[in-house]
Structures are given as C-alpha cells and as structure tokens.
Write a structure and sequence with these properties.
Layout lengths: L1 H6 L11 H13 L5 E5 L5 H10 L2 E6 L2 H9 L4 E3 L11 E6 L15 H6 L9 H11 E12 L4 H10 L2 E11 L2 E10 L1
Length: 192
C-alpha cells in the first residue's frame, strides 16, 4: 500500500492532491458558474474546493469525515464541515456537488482505524462509498443541480453509471484520462 499511496499523492492523515484531484478540479472549473453554491464532499486537503472557488468565484463549502482534512481545508480559507457524505446539509442546498470518493478496491474492514485507509479504500469492489453517496446526493441538489463524480476503472465505471441510473440520475462522462494503473473519468450526474 505504501508504494501506491505515494503514487496517489498522500501524506499520513489527509489525502493530498494527485492526478485524480487535478482532473476533477479541471472539469469543475469548466462546469461551475460564479453564481453556483458548491459542495465538495470528501475534500481531503481542500485543494479542489480551493481551486474551484478561486477559478470560478463560486461559493464553495468543503466537507470531510476526517477532522484533519477539515482543518487543512479551513487553513485554505474554506468553510469546512466535518460530515459523513451529505448528511448535515439541507435539502436543495447546492447547485453542484463534487466528489472524488475513496475507490481503490480493498478490504473495507482495514479502513476502520486509519484515516488514509478511509481516504483510499472503496471496499471490496471499490464502490462502498460512492453507492451511499449516490443514494443521498439527490436530496441536497437544487433544481437544475448536478454532481460531478470522479470514477476509476478500478471501481467499474459502467457499474457506477448503472447504479446512478437506478437512483434516478442520467450520467455522461465529461472527461477521461488514462494512467498505467487505471483510467479516471469524471461523470456528470443529473437527476432525471
């Protein structure tokens, strides 16, 4: 895990920007408008949320389950909330929700005590966090809102699109980048 963690751009307790972060930020910068209210779920260091705020002028809030991550996001000048996915936010609060979920297929039990394991592990099939997100994100989206979700080929893009469809979302891949160990896609999910 150490070699992969080093390649993924992580430190001891908080996920740091890596190629997946850069891809999500670049797509979000194209899709987010200055009048949008944006939530980044699982913000890690807050780098994506900061870039989106700075590049678009949108009102951006960061959230993460990890208290160390919310602290780093606040150090970037972001309002940051310690939260499990979208649970504390009111219905219809956001025009755009960004999410780079933990997606590496691993034993979810190993992720219980270590913040970095939680930031990386998507459970046995890589979808242990993205599926609960898809179950709940529609509640916090405003009318005409959408979510931008980063998905890895390790997780199964078709499976995530099918699951999203079952939850009432239409999905389109906005951008894809290939790396030696995976292909990353940013999906735009719009309530149907």
């Amino acid at each position: 895990m150490t070699d992969l963690a080093e390649r993924r751009g992580v430190e001891t307790a908080v996920y740091q920007p890596a190629e997946d972060s850069a891809l999500l930020a670049a797509v979000a910068e194209e899709e987010v408008e200055s009048a949008d209210r944006v939530l980044e779920v699982g913000t890690g260091s807050g780098w994506v949320a900061e870039r989106v705020r700075d590049e678009t002028g949108a009102d951006v809030i960061a959230s993460d389950l990890n208290p160390h991550a919310t602290r780093q996001a606040r150090e970037r000048g972001l309002p940051a909330v310690r939260a499990d996915l979208v649970s504390p936010f009111r219905d219809g609060a956001f025009d755009v929700v960004l999410f780079n979920p933990p997606y590496l297929p691993e034993d979810a039990a190993a992720a219980r005590d270590d913040w970095m394991e939680r930031a990386l592990s998507g459970g046995e099939d890589g979808r242990a966090v993205v599926e609960p997100f898809l179950d709940t994100v529609g509640r916090v989206l405003a009318v005409d809102g959408f979510a931008l979700v980063l998905v890895s080929s390790l997780t199964g893009v078709e499976e995530v699109v099918a699951f999203a469809g079952e939850r009432g979302f239409s999905a389109v891949a906005l951008r894809e980048e290939s790396y030696p160990f995976e292909t990353l896609s940013v999906l735009k999910l719009v309530p149907a």
